[in-house]
Amino acid sequence: MERWVWVTIIITAYLGVTLAIGLAAGRRTSDSVQGFVAGDRSFGLLVMYFVTGASVFSAFAFLGGPGWAYSRGAAAFYILAYGALGMAPFYWIGPRVAALGRRFGYVTQAQLLVGRFPSRGLSLLVAVLSLIAFVPYITVQMRGAGIVIETVTEGHIPLWAGALVAYGIVIVYVLNSGVMAVGWTNTFQGIFMVTIAWTLGLYLPIRLYGGVGPMFEEIALSRPGFLSPPGLDGSGAPWSWGAYSSLILVSIVGLMMWPHLFMKAFAAKDDRTLRRTVILFPTFQLFLIPVFLIGFAGVLFTAEPLAQADSILPFMIMETQLPAMVVGLFCAGALSASMSTGDALLHASASVVVEDGIRPWRRLTDGQERALMRGIVLMVGAAAYVAALDPDSSLVLLLASAYGLISQLAPPVVAALYWRRATTAGVTAGLAAGAATAVFFWLNPELKPLEIHEGILGLIVHIPTLVLVSLATPAQNPEEVETFMSAA
Amino acid sequence: MSLGTARFLAGLYFVAMLGAVTWPGALPFIRIRPFVLGLPFSFAWIAGWTLGAVFVLWGLDRVEGRYRDAD
């Protein structure tokens, strides 16, 4: 039997197991919005650890991480640098958010904000910003899945079919089991992707160079400067410290503000679980080490630089003549990375659109809400799929600025939890000004001072606006503020 | 250790880490040698701070836990 057939069999088996886990996961939750969105607040440490790790690390980390190390050298280290810093504040914020969720029944980020700053407009603004950041992100995950399947089956399964099957399965289990499916499939996929990354990351340098140290010795000799931060930019010229440092900073601020991650605070069983998830997260983060090793192994492996740096991992897998079993397992690892983020994103986008974009304006029964969420999962999935088929899709470009928009959710969250004098007008004005600034500099990158990330520039406008407008407008009703704050 | 001290030290660790991985604090540590476990020094530098975060948060949690239990 030909190799690609074996590979296809392994991928099929992997997808079958994922689907079975996803469907089985939903059996024990209630058929309610709380069950669909927050899993009846029942996630223990094992699930929280993997749901957090596997949702954070997407196809971008698994394919883009090696791609960055391969083409941009030490610039890739930024991805390793921000994780622990971005997660740490959640040690304090997470339990506060969870307490508010239990007290007032919140299941989304915007509900929490609106609980403190009553405004349907604010709720809609958060929903719209989240969706703008989500759709390109899902598109990239689908494309990643399609590309991997197409490469390892030597083109026998084209991108459109691979992405369709992988995400067809994701949609089936998300529709059926909601966040429980996301939790349990991510546990399976998380274990898978970490194991595959460490195995390949250590195997490839040993096989090709005789070890990790010898590999870096050779790279240091032939490419001076390549291994020193801030590394290279996309065109291969030295990158600027302003861009490198501000990208780390905006990623720290934005990381836990992604609604699909933030919302998991509502799904955790208790505060202890949440805190331990934060404590252990950096151990998951370290799986980026082997991921980068794979990319560095490619530096001296390819005679001509690859046009698509992101394909370095599948390229090396195919070129090193590994057994079909290993190729299949690698593919399953890459699919794990893609699907574990994609499912969380699809689920969160439906939750956010319905809970924050529609429900404040129309009364819905619990059953109608769940039905509507399932409809949105399908619609968002279909929209992202269509975009994923177009290699020149401008949606993919949008992803570059997703962090710029998402990081703007941080000041409102911090103000809601810690600043009694913040007002609805202040928060709304700050969010609008910050998002507008980020979009402006994203569209006009040549105007950015010191190549600082547009998200940081947005925050520089956002925070003073929030503070000044809050102080210039009458304080919120002290009793309402007290009720909210005392629950946190 | 008191709760205030533990929180201050943990906060200090993360501020120091932010300084150590961005401009200008990272500059003195931009070097390839010595290799640490086969990794170039700059790479191991960031990985080390990341791993250290686990121990810092774990230590903080032990102190916080004692105070929570006392409540």
Structure notes:
The complex is a heterodimer of chains A (about 500) and B (about 70). Chain A is an all-alpha fold and about 500 residues long. Helix content of chain A is about 75%, strand content about 0%. Chain A contains 25 helices and no strands. The radius of gyration of chain A is 22 Å and the shape is globular. Chain A starts with a helix and ends with a helix. Chain B is mainly α. Chain B has helices spanning about 5-20, 40-70. The mean pLDDT of chain B is about 95. Chains A and B meet through helix 5, helix 11, helix 12 and helix 15 of A and helix 1 and helix 2 of B.
Question: Quick recap of the structure?
Answer:
By secondary structure, chain A is mainly alpha-helical. Chain A contains 25 helices and no strands. The mean pLDDT of chain A is 90.
Q: Overall 3D geometry of chain A?
A: globular
Give the termini distance of chain B in whole angstroms.
17 Å
Mean pLDDT of chain B: 93
Radius of gyration of chain B: 15 Å
What would you report as the Rg of chain A, rounded to the nearest angstrom?
A: 22 Å
Contiguous runs where pLDDT drops below 50 for at least 5 residues of chain A: none
Count of helical regions of chain B: 2
Percentage of residues assigned to helices of chain A: over 70%
* Multimer state: heterodimer
Total helices of chain A: the number is 25
Q: Mean pLDDT of chain A, as a whole number?
A: 90
The fraction of residues assigned to DSSP E strands of chain A is under 5%
Helix content of chain B: 55-70%
Judged by helices, strands and strand pairing, the structural class of chain A is mainly alpha
Structural class of chain B: mainly alpha
**Topology, number of strands of chain B:** 0
**Helix-strand string of chain B:** HH
Helix-strand pattern of chain A, N to C? HHHHHHHHHHHHHHHHHHHHHHHHH
